[in-house]
Design the sequence.
């Protein structure tokens, strides 16, 4: 019997595990069929007859009756019944006896401990080639994605943002297709569901039970109060924001924002809060989203750590998402922001599309020119100092009154406007110092900018304190109302400090009296474009995919594809509480795999618009097999690593950088269905058939076990090659014509890959099996990478990345 702290299977060992953790909230999976089993795969989209409603209620009431008959009324609170994708419930308990009773009760399939989840564009549509090559084929920008609903499981939404106005919508969605509703509430009126936003719910039962929900901060409504920068406002506008909404921040027009699929609709399922969230709320949100009829689920979040237990693929979230995929819903999830370290993925399963993040070709560089002719670059989207003149520089402490209560270090952080001496500060560039105050106290860059404005200074230079080291200002690129630069670099900060001190004349007592150092700040708001893009962002989580918390690697390629993630302009909630840096802005420039994920959700909507019948695996395959592995200059895509740029591998970017124009016409697809995923699970080392039956409800086929590497994906990963391995793939022609393909292989080092047949003709809509044999030539004891290329006679080109770890070459 497998055991672990995360997946609690029914065994006595488990009891001590959860007691040690003092966990209080558990998800219980029950034996009976959920409502979705009333619908066959063919009858999708959903059948909302009375039958379903009645059955749903029966399941939920059944849970109540089951609990009442088993447990003392005061010993538990049921937080949710899950009824659509799985039958189960979440329960908040006070003592372990309750669980004792539960785990021995008939009808209980598995018990899972609740775990914490973490929250993991003006320019990007052009960067991706969408306006020129994709929108025209779908009836223009405003129509692109029409009829498709994207469900965001995230932190809520600010409904009154221009990116979500209903201006481009003439019709309403048919109720047969989508039957979601808007749950009105605090700051979220019913009218917020305007045709563009078609559904909104919030899920906070577990957050409340765990004691992490703060009602004065985390609105009890779908309204987005978060500010850690990964909220739905931002992500939803990237995927499906309206076309050409001007991005105006602090009075400066940075261009126009468009979502990837401006015609798609948005449904919001708020399950994350300012602090993060819990899996049981997320599971409830996904159950609702699929029941409502979303086509795509976008998850800009993941578990806080790799779940323990025999395999990450069987945690309740993954299992539920497998059922969502079975129901035809495409699921896209952020890879995580744990890069550049390997095995840092927080998105695991082959039925999910996991997204790596790239830096784009646009950067903003802010420049300071010193009076001595030297110049340095830094960050901060700030206006320039007026004119072309150089302004005198004064360090904050030299332009302030000494205080008995406030130390020099605090003065230098520019958080105390009342202490500046107006006659000394006015018209000067003030040097402020980024110190521990910014990390551990309330100091913020926004306050610096506000104070500079208050005292009438010309601008500010935020330098790093060399004693503190260069802790870069995190996460967001800030837009600033006053001239200012953030010198993230210690060398530049030291050079500035030296220049300042050698040009400042001090009295005997050390008081600065004459300020001769001069500088000017250039415009930090102008974008700079580069050809060395896309490039894998350093923070983007890296493969190989891991099977469990022991970091055993799996025969699954993760991430799947890469999309733009760094410095993405998108809609921002004016009332964001969490992040003071960018409070009060309508658009914000954010960074993370959470920003990359909605690009792929939007592109999936475009593919779904073009190919309504394609199932999730077909969409993933189309995206992967058509992805780019070279950058805009034609060189192999690079990856930001710890200190240097290295050539990217499939563990950095999966199949490569997403290419929407080619993804809507891939030529061939690798398809997979529910049974294939179950067969895959049955082949995972160390997982017994019984735990698979408990999780997915059906047992393993009795036929010969296949390898995990046989799952029909547009990638080949063998994590433990001993001698040789035969891998089977099946391609289906979706190119609309008969086509002849020629196979070539870029060999991974230490391995000889042969493919049969080498040339094949495939009929329109026809399928074809390919036999791929990987033979170890030498034990590399490291992953090596190659590629299988299928070059079609009608210009289709299918690229399949190969990743192999040769453990030993003997044994064949
Ligand atoms: C829903 O199912 C019922 C039978 O249970 C069937 O009569 C009806 O046509 C179905 N509706 C749709 C929209 O498929
Ligand atoms: C709840 O949030 C409010 C507003 O942010 C804050 O003032 C208060 O301290 C928080 N309460 C707790 C218990 O964290
Ligand atoms: C900055 O980022 C680092 C690494 O991601 C993190 O450990 C730190 O807490 C962050 N600091 C702030 C102020 O958010
Ligand atoms: C496609 O191939 C099939 C089988 O080989 C053949 O019968 C058919 O005529 C071909 N179609 C075209 C347009 O060449
Ligand atoms: C191939 O499938 C498409 C879409 O289902 C269909 O329109 C077309 O007629 C099919 N072609 C053949 C030759 O079966």
Sequence:
């Amino acid at each position: 019997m497998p055991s672990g702290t995360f997946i609690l299977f029914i065994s006595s060992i488990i009891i001590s595990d959860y007691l040690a953790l003092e966990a209080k909230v558990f998800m219980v999976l029950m034996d009976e069929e959920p409502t979705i089993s009333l619908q066959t795969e063919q009858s999708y989209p959903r059948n909302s007859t009375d039958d379903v409603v009645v059955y749903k209620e029966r399941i939920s009431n059944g849970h109540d009756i089951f609990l009442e008959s088993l447990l003392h009324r005061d010993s538990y609170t049921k937080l949710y019944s899950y009824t659509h994708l799985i039958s189960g419930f979440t329960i908040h308990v006070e003592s372990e006896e309750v669980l004792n009773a539960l785990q021995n009760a008939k009808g209980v399939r598995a018990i899972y401990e609740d775990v914490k989840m973490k929250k993991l564009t003006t320019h990007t549509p052009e960067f991706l080639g969408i306006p020129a090559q994709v929108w025209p084929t779908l009836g223009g920008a405003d129509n692109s994605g029409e009829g498709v609903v994207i469900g965001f499981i995230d932190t809520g939404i600010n409904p009154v943002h221009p990116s979500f106005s209903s201006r481009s919508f003439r019709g309403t969605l048919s109720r047969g297709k989508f039957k979601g509703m808007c749950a009105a509430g605090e700051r979220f009126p019913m009218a917020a569901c305007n045709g563009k936003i078609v559904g909104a719910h919030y899920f906070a039962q577990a957050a409340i039970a765990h004691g992490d929900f703060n009602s004065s901060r985390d609105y009890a409504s779908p309204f987005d109060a978060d500010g850690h920068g990964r909220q739905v406002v931002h992500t939803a506008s990237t995927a499906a924001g309206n076309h050409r909404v001007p991005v105006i921040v602090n009075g400066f027009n940075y261009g126009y924002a468009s979502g990837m699929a401006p015609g798609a609709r948005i449904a919001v399922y708020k399950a994350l809060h300012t602090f993060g969230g819990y899996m049981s709320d997320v599971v409830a949100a996904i159950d609702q989203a699929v029941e409502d009829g979303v086509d795509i689920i976008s998850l800009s979040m993941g578990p806080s750590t790799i779940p323990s237990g025999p395999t990450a693929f069987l945690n309740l979230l993954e299992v539920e998402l497998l059922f969502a995929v079975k129901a035809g819903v495409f699921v896209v999830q952020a890879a995580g922001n744990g890069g550049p370290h390997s095995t840092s993925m927080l998105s695991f399963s082959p039925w999910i599309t996991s997204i790596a993040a790239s830096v784009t070709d646009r950067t903003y560089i802010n420049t300071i020119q010193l009076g001595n002719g030297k110049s340095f670059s830094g960050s901060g989207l700030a206006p320039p100092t007026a004119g072309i003149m150089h302004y005198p520089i004064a360090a904050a402490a030299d332009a302030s009154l000494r205080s008995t209560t406030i130390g020099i270090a605090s003065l230098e952080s520019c958080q105390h406007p009342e202490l500046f001496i107006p006659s000394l500060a006015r018209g000067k560039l003030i040097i402020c110092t980024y110190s521990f105050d910014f990390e551990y106290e309330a100091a913020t860059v926004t306050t610096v900018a506000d104070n500079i404005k208050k005292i009438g200074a010309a601008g500010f230079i935020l330098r790093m304190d060399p004693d503190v080291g260069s802790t870069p200002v995190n996460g967001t690129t800030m837009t600033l109302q006053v001239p200012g630069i953030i010198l993230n670099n210690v060398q530049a900060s030291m050079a500035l400090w030296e220049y300042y001190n050698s040009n400042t004349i001090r009295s005997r007592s050390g008081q600065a009296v004459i300020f001769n150092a001069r500088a000017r700040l250039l415009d930090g708001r102008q974008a700079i474009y580069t050809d060395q893009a896309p490039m894998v962002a350093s923070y983007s989580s890296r493969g190989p995919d891991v099977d469990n918390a022991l970091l055993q690697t799996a025969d699954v390629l993760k991430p799947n594809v890469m999309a733009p993630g760094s410095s993405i302009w998108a809609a921002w909630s004016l009332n964001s509480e969490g992040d003071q840096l960018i409070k009060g802005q309508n658009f914000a420039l954010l960074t993370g795999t959470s920003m990359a994920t909605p690009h792929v959700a939007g592109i999936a909507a475009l593919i779904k618009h073009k190919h309504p019948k394609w199932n999730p695996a077909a969409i993933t395959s189309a995206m992967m097999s058509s992805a780019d592995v070279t950058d805009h200059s034609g060189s192999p895509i690079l990856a930001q690593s710890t200190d240097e740029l290295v050539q990217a591998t499939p563990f950095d970017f999966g199949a490569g950088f997403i290419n929407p124009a080619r993804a809507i016409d891939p030529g061939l697809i690798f398809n997979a269905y529910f049974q294939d995923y179950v067969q895959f699970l049955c082949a995972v080392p160390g997982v017994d058939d019984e735990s698979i039956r408990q999780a997915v409800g059906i047992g393993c086929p009795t036929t010969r076990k296949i390898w995990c590497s046989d799952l029909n994906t547009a990638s080949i990963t063998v994590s433990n090659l001993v001698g040789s391995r035969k891998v089977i793939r099946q391609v289906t022609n979706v190119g609309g014509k008969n086509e002849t393909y020629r196979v070539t292989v870029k060999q991974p080092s230490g391995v000889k890959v042969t493919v049969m047949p080498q040339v094949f003709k495939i009929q329109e809509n026809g399928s074809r099996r390919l036999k791929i044999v990987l033979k170890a030539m030498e034990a590399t004891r490291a992953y090596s990478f190659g590629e299988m290329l299928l070059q079609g006679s009608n210009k289709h080109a299918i690229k399949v990345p190969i990743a192999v770890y040769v453990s030993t070459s003997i044994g064949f």
The mean pLDDT is 82. Residues 117-358+538-666 form a domain with the Rossmann fold fold (CATH 3.40.50.200). The CA atoms of residues 364 and 423 lie 33 Å apart.
